[in-house]
Design brief:
Elements (H helix, E strand, L loop, with lengths): L6 H4 L5 H13 L1 E2 L2 H7 L6 E4 L4 E6 L5 E7 L6 H13 L8 E7 L2 E7 L6 H9 L7 H19 L5 E2 L8 E3 L5 E3 L6 E2 L7 E3 L12 H6 L1 E3 H17 L5 E2 L5 E2 L1 H6 L6 H7 L9 H14 L10 H16 L18 E8 L13 H4 E7 L4 E2 L8 H4 L2
Parallel strand pairs: 1-5
Antiparallel strand pairs: 2-3, 3-4, 4-6, 5-6, 7-10, 8-9, 11-12, 13-14, 15-16, 16-17
Helix pairs in contact: 6-8, 6-12, 8-11, 10-11, 11-12
């Protein structure tokens, strides 16, 4: 089998373009051997989910690091998607963007290795609430919205700008502490021309109900089109109704838009009338949250806020919630501990006497500290707490 062929001999089977691409990817991220990924995932037997560009499997590397491996099978036309996703993720290190560990290749299959986020995704959480299987209180939804907005703001304010192009609850993953991170960058794109504010794409991609109408018509991706998708996510989180469903004859219907009618007067009142009762939204918090969501999905792109403003507003809402603002605040049964983490600060090793930091994987190079609601860094450092980092 090909995975058993020595690495130097294996290169004989690659075309010049494939060899060039793998060399380039090897410069930006760690390459994993196929056999290592096969063993780590027990033969790709523990599937976590399946998306438009591939299936994701749970695994564990030698040393105990848990991973998620995305498999893009028979990667022909999807090769560009795979390469773009690896390059995109290699650029970013942010607490609210999923961390890339590396990549792999075997015959026509490609693999992307991420950190494992075992808290599920937001779509799953909302679905469980609809079926009465698990609670999803308002303060958790607010924190998740702030986390996701922070990650997207980092992308759109980077240089060059980057756009996710498939913002939806299923692509917002949660770690075991409830921190939300944007994931699945298979459709992401980057503005390579300095000063340009939009990216024109030939293939209109995205998920019905979340994709901006102007983007669908024009093929132009911008911060405004990303904000529209995020605004739809905010509306779904507050009322827990899906934005798009397949009808009985295969047509697409839009229950959330039909219920809210955001472009018509009285939209905020309509949202207030259909709030998800299981979340127990305080009125003041719900009003501010829905007002922001409706601004984000304005039919006029110019009227939508940028992500920096979205993050600011969500932080203000969170602050008012913590201070028991009029009509809102945490109820006695809902208030989290004062030390409840609301974000992360990442420390990165940039110099070492015993190793080249550029050759270390992210788990060995970075240490994350939780930030509590007072702004303090909360965490313990040492070999007993960061085994992977200390072993470097």
């Amino acid at each position: 089998m090909l995975q058993l062929v020595p690495e130097g001999v294996r290169d004989w089977f690659l075309s010049d373009d494939e060899r060039r691409t793998q060399n380039q990817l090897g410069e930006v991220a760690l390459e994993y051997a196929y056999q290592d990924l096969h063993d780590a995932t027990s033969g790709f037997s523990m599937q976590l989910g399946k998306g438009a560009t591939g299936s994701v499997y749970k695994g564990g590397l030698r040393g105990g690091t848990q991973i998620a491996v995305k498999v893009i099978a028979n990667c022909g036309p999807e090769a560009g998607t795979f390469e773009d996703e690896v390059r995109m993720l290699s650029r970013f290190r942010h607490p609210n963007l999923v961390t890339l560990f590396g990549w792999g290749a075997h015959k026509m299959d490609k693999f992307i290795v991420y950190e494992l986020l075992d808290g599920g995704d937001v779509s799953m959480r909302l679905d469980k609430v609809r079926h009465g299987k698990a609670p999803f209180p308002w303060h958790q939804r607010l924190r998740i919205a702030m986390d996701a907005a922070s990650g997207l703001s980092h992308m759109t304010n980077s240089s060059p700008k980057a756009f996710h192009r498939d913002v939806k609850p299923a692509n917002i993953l949660l770690d075991q502490n409830g921190t939300a991170k944007m994931a699945d960058f298979g459709l992401a794109g980057t503005l390579k021309e300095m000063g340009k504010m939009h990216l024109t794409v030939q293939n209109i991609s995205g998920t019905p109900g979340y994709a901006c109408p102007f983007y669908i018509q024009s093929g132009k991706v911008s911060e405004q089109s990303e904000v529209y998708s995020f605004g739809t996510v905010l509306m779904e989180m507050i009322v827990n109704q899906p934005p798009a469903l397949a009808g009985p004859t295969g047509e697409i219907c839009y229950p959330l838009l039909q219920a809210v009618q955001p472009a018509a007067s009285g939209a905020e009142e309509r949202v207030a009338a259909i709030l998800d009762p299981t979340a127990a939204w305080p009125k003041a918090i719900a009003d501010s949250f829905s007002s922001l969501a409706l601004t984000c999905v304005s039919m006029s792109p110019e009227a939508r806020p940028n992500f920096e403003h979205v993050v600011t507003v969500l932080r203000q809402i969170s602050s008012s919630a913590g201070n028991n603002a009029a009509g809102g605040g945490y109820g006695a049964a809902q208030e989290p501990p004062a030390s409840s983490p609301i974000g992360e600060v990442m420390l990165r090793c940039v110099s070492s006497a015993v190793a080249d930091p550029a050759q270390l994987n992210p788990m060995e190079r970075n240490i994350c500290f939780k930030v509590d609601c007072t702004g303090r860094w909360v965490g313990q450092v040492g070999k007993g707490h960061q085994g992977e980092f200390s072993s470097a």
